[in-house]
Amino acid sequence: MAGVELCEPIQLYNILNQARKASRLAERNYLCLIDARTKREYDESHLITAIRMKQDPSDVLPYPVEIVPGKLYMGNYIQACHQQIQKDLHIQAHVNVSEEVDTFFPDDSDQVLHISVPDSPEADMSPFFSDICHFIDSHTSHGAALVFSTLGISRCSTVVIAYLMHSCRLYLKNAWSYLQRCKSNIRPNRGFVQQLSEWEARLYMATITNISEPGY
Predict the structure, then answer these.
(1) 163-166: long-range contacts at Cβ-Cβ below 8 A with a sequence spacing of 24 or more?
(2) Tens digit of pLDDT for each residue in 144-176?
(3) Structure pTM?
């Protein structure tokens, strides 16, 4: 249904990159955008990448969603291998929680933290949460970090929620809700959800979020 909505640049950017295969910028009749920022603000933002988008959806790759403006992005393995994406978003470091080897930065580089974990309820990522949070914070003073897994749905969303809980001081339920607004199809597996609940109890000395509620 047609309508008018005011939103921040990060909201618009994430809305346009919700599609799994092709950016919604490739849809000819998707929206009419009126940008109220100054030309300088627009030119310096990553929304300028919209200009480069082609009209053929098969040629358009969605960009990673933005979590913390200019600092943290979340995506999949294909996006992490795409050179233009790294350049446009000023990606300086990767947190790779897939079993694939990073192809953009050398795997032994200090710009890569590779946690090779299968997307399985039996897999345990919780021992790495502290190291991941420290790595992201230490590599984003002059650029951005990209957290990615194979499909960008389960493992990377678990890591990003853990980061938001630690570095942004959010409870699990608030971090989950915030990330879901950035990317609608996040889905950590049940084992990872339990690990996030334990991480919450460790950070706040209490379990705040009821993970048995629908939605978790």
Answers:
(1) 163/72, 163/132, 163/133, 163/136, 164/67, 165/196, 165/199, 165/200, 165/203, 166/129, 166/130, 166/133, 166/199, 166/203
(2) 999 999 999 999 999 999 999 999 999 999 999
(3) 0.81
